[in-house]
Amino acid sequence: MSLSDGQRSTGVVAPADHVSLRRHNLAVVLRHIRDAGPRSRARIAADTGLNKATVSSLVAELVDRGLLREAESERGAVGRPGQLVELDGRRVCGVGAELNVEYLAVTALDLTGEVIIESRIPFDAAHLGADATFDRLAGLIEQAVAAIGLRGGQTVGVTLAVPGLVQSAAGILALAPNLGWESVDIVRAMTERLQEPTYHVSVDNEANLGALAAYAEFAAADPAAVRDLVLLTGAVGVGGGVVAGGQLQRGGHGFSGEVGHLPVAPAGGRCGCGRTGCWETVVGLTALLDKATDPDDPVRDVSLDVEQRLAEITRRAEAGDERTLAALADVGTWLGLGGAIVVNILNPDVLVLGGYFGALGPWLTAPLEEAIRDRVIAPDGGGCRVVCSGLGFTAAVRGGAQISLDSVFDDPTQVPTQVGASA
Amino acid sequence: MSLSDGQRSTGVVAPADHVSLRRHNLAVVLRHIRDAGPRSRARIAADTGLNKATVSSLVAELVDRGLLREAESERGAVGRPGQLVELDGRRVCGVGAELNVEYLAVTALDLTGEVIIESRIPFDAAHLGADATFDRLAGLIEQAVAAIGLRGGQTVGVTLAVPGLVQSAAGILALAPNLGWESVDIVRAMTERLQEPTYHVSVDNEANLGALAAYAEFAAADPAAVRDLVLLTGAVGVGGGVVAGGQLQRGGHGFSGEVGHLPVAPAGGRCGCGRTGCWETVVGLTALLDKATDPDDPVRDVSLDVEQRLAEITRRAEAGDERTLAALADVGTWLGLGGAIVVNILNPDVLVLGGYFGALGPWLTAPLEEAIRDRVIAPDGGGCRVVCSGLGFTAAVRGGAQISLDSVFDDPTQVPTQVGASA
Asked: Does A12 reach chain B within 8 Å, measured CB to CB?
C-alpha cells in the first residue's frame, strides 16, 4: 500500500520512460520480496516476468543501497543461482508516534517490519494541554531516532497519529473533540521541537493508520482474499479506517471513517461533539466503564496503562461478574447496530476490531456478527468476517511507521548507495 | 477509471517489459486524449513526458486501429507538427442495458462518449416476470447492436444494470428485493437470448454504474478536484454507488453502497426486505408518492414514462401545491439523515443526487445540505458538495456503456488494425 493514494492526480496518467522503468522495476523487486518473502534471483524473475539479467542488476543495486542482502542462511555462496535474497533491515527505519486521549506511544519498524523500539506511557493530554503533550511526544520520538542511529540505521520518516480530523497535506489537526483541540498546526509544532529533523514529519488520523496496520496484519498472508477492510477502533472515542480496493481511502478531504458520531442512539446521551446519540456515547470506552464500574473503580484510573485496565475487565468478565458482562452485552448490541451500517455501505471482506474492542473481542464479536447477519441486506452479511486485531493499542503507531517506510518501497533510489558497502 | 479495480490482484506488482511498455504507452496516449481533448503530437509529448518520435509512432498505431484520427478541422495538413489528433468514434461502441422496477433502457456510446442510441420503455418487470423481461431487454439490445453495425461500428461489450445485489464475476443477480427475484443467472440468460454474441456481456449494480457515469459527469472537467464521489439514486428502491480514490469501489464481494436498507427510521414502516425502518421506506419513490398523491392519481401509473410522471410532480411543486411540497420536505429531511451517515463514513468531494432525487433536486438539495452541515462531524460538512446529476434515469446505462468501452482504453491492442485503413 502506498501513500500516493492520498495525493491528487494531475489527470495525466504517468507514462513510462527508461529511467522511470528502472525505478519502477527496483520498486517491483523490493516490494515483491517484502510481500512474498526471501527468494532467489531466478524465482524473482519467474514471479515478476522480468528477465534474469535484469533481476540480477536490480538486486545488485538494491544491495548497494542497503535495502536487500544475501539471505543469512547461505552466506559464502554469494551469487550462486539458488542463493536467496531478503530485505536488509539495518539501513532504514520508519517511526510512528501517537498522541491519544489517555496515552502517548512510539514504534519504530525496520524495513523488514521488525519492531525496533516500542513504548507507550499513560498521558492525560486533554488536561496537560498541547504544549506539554508535544514536548513529551518529541522526547519519545528523539529517543527512538537516537536508538535507530545507534544501530547504524537511518530514520526516513515520522508519522504522527492523532484521534481527530486531520488535514494531512497542511499538517493540521483540524478537530479532536475528545481532546477539546481545534486547528492545531501539529506538524510545525513537532518539527520545531525535533530541531530540524533530516526525516519527513507528517500527520494522519489514528484510525486511518491503524487500518493500514490491520491491512498488513490480515491481508499479508493472502492479499487476494482481503482487499477491502474496515477497522473499528475503540478508545475513549471510536474511530474508523477504510481500506478499499487495497488502498487506504481517506475521502475527498481526509475525513473518511468518522463513525464515532453516527446517529445510532437517537434517545441516547449528549456527546462531546455537542450532538445527541452519537455511536461513541454508547460504545466508547467511557460508556463501557460507566456501565461496568463505579466512579472510584481503579479500572478508571487514567494514570494506569490502558492494557492493564482492560486486563482487569477481562478478568472480571472471565470470572462471570454480572455487571461487567451486562455492560459488555450492551456495548456489543450497540456495536452491531453501527457495524451493520458500515458493512452495508462498504461491504468489507473483514471488519477488524481494534483498540479496546479487540481486547474485549471474546464478548463483543458474537453480537456484532449477529447484527451483521440480521441487518446487512447482502446475503450472508455480504461475506464480511469479524476479526480481532492482535495489535492492541499499537495499531496506529505501527501503521504510522509503515507509512513512513512506504516512500522507500515506492522509490528505492531515494536511499543513497553506500560507500564501500558490501553484502 | 478501469474495470481492473474489480479484479483481484495476485499480490505481485506487475513489472514492465518492453512489450507491455508499448501497450501501456498506447493506453496512456489514448486515455490522455479522452481526458484532455484533441491535441497535437508535440503537445501530447509535452503533457506525458514521452519523446516526440515515440508519440508519433503511438499515434500512427492508434490511427491504424481506428481509435484516433486527425482532427476534422485541419484535414489536408496531415502530419504537420501542429495538426491535432482526436478520438475516432466510428470504430467501436459500448452498450449499457438496464432492467429496473418500472422500465427497461439501453444506451450505446461511441469511443468519444457520444450517445449513438438511447431508448427507455415503461416495463413492469416484477409482474411480467424474468423471462418476459429478458426477452424484451434482449430485443432492445439487438436493435442497438444492429444500429451500431449499420454505421460501420463494432460493439465491444454490453453491460447489464440491475437494481439489486450482483455477483459480477459469476454473472449472477443475487437478490433484487423490489423485483422479488433471487439468484438469477442473468448473464447466461441474456447471452442465450443474444445468440452467441461476439461482444462481452457482464452485469453490475445499477447504482455502481450510475456512479461511474456521475464520475464522468462531475470529474471530467477537473479530475484533481473530484476523486471521491457518492451517488444516491432514487427510484422505487434507493441505491448508492461509491467512487473513492478515483476508482469505483464495489466492496469485497460486490455489495457496497447498499444504502437503501440503512436503519434510519426505527419507528418507520415495513420494508420489502422484511426489515422495519429502512431508508428507502421513507425516501423511495413509493414513499414520496404515498405522501404526495391519492392511490388513483395518474402520476402513479407505471405504464407512463417515469420522467413524465416526475415532470407532473415538478409542475405541482412549482405551482405551490401544499401536499406535494410537504411530501418533498419530508423526503428531504429523511434524505439528510441518511445522507449525513454516508458523508461521515466516506467524506466524498461530491454527493450526487440521481434518479428521481436529481429530478426533484430543487426541493431536496437544501434539507440535505442542512443535514450534512449539522450532522457531519468534519468542519463544513467535510467539504462535501451536493450536486444534481443531469443524467436523469440514463446514468446506469451510460455507466454501463462506459465500462464496456474501458477494455479498449486499458488495452487498445485488442482492437485489430484495419486493412487498408486511412485517416
From this structure: yes
**Among A385, A346, A32, A404, which Cα is nearest to A213's?**
A404
Of A251, A256, A344, the CB nearest to B262: A344
Check if A224 contacts B (Cβ < 8 Å): yes
At residue B3, the pLDDT reads 32
Q: Is A28 on the interface with B (CB under 8 A)?
A: yes
Dmax of chain A from CA atoms?
Answer: 71
Chain B residues in contact with A24 by the CB 8 A cut-off are 15-16
Residue B24 CA to residue B21 CA, distance in Å, equals: 5
Q: Which of B27, B28, B345 sits opposite A342 (nearest CB)?
A: B345
Task: Give the CA distances from residue B172 to residues A168, B2, B145, B263, in Å, rounded to whole numbers and listed in that order.
Answer: 41, 21, 23, 27
pLDDT along chain A (423 residues), means of 10: 35 62 93 92 90 94 96 58 88 97 96 94 94 98 96 95 93 93 96 93 96 93 89 94 95 94 87 89 96 95 91 98 97 96 97 97 96 93 96 96 94 82 43
Amino acid, single-letter form, for residue B180: G
Of A258, A347, A350, Cβ closest to residue B256: A347
CB atoms within 10 A of CB B113: 16
What kind and span of H or E run contains B193?
helix B186-193
Q: Cβ of B11 under 8 Å from any chain A Cβ?
A: yes
Please indicate whether, in this complex, the C-beta atoms of A344 and B259 are within 8 angstroms of each other: yes
**CB contact residues (below 8 A), chain B span 31-50, against chain A:** 31-32, 35-36, 47-50
Nearest partner of A102 among A299, A270, A257, judged by Cα: A299
- Using only the alpha carbons of chain B, give its radius of gyration: 23
The residues with which B94 forms a beta bridge, in sequence order, are B109, B157
Domains, chain A, ordered by start: 18-88 (1.10.10.10), 92-209+397-409 (3.30.420.40), 222-391 (3.30.420.40)
Does B12 contact A32 at a Cβ distance shorter than 8 Å? yes
Q: How many CB atoms lie within 10 A of CB A274?
A: 10
Cell digits for A45? Answer: 524473475
Q: Which of A1, A4, A9, A12 is the best substitution to test chain B (most B C-beta atoms within 10 A)?
A: A12
Interface test with B, best of A377, A410, A411 (most B CBs within 10 A): A377
Interface contact B174, partner A, CB < 8 A: yes
Instruction: Say how many Å lie between the first and final Cα of chain A, rounded.
Output: 28
Cβ(A259)–Cβ(A342) under 8 Å?
yes
Q: What is the DSSP string of A323-372?
A: HHHHHHHHHHHHHHHHHHHHHHHH--SEEEEEEHHHHTHHHHHHHHHHHH
Global ipTM: 0.88
CB-facing half-sphere around the CA of B114: CA atoms within 13 A: 10
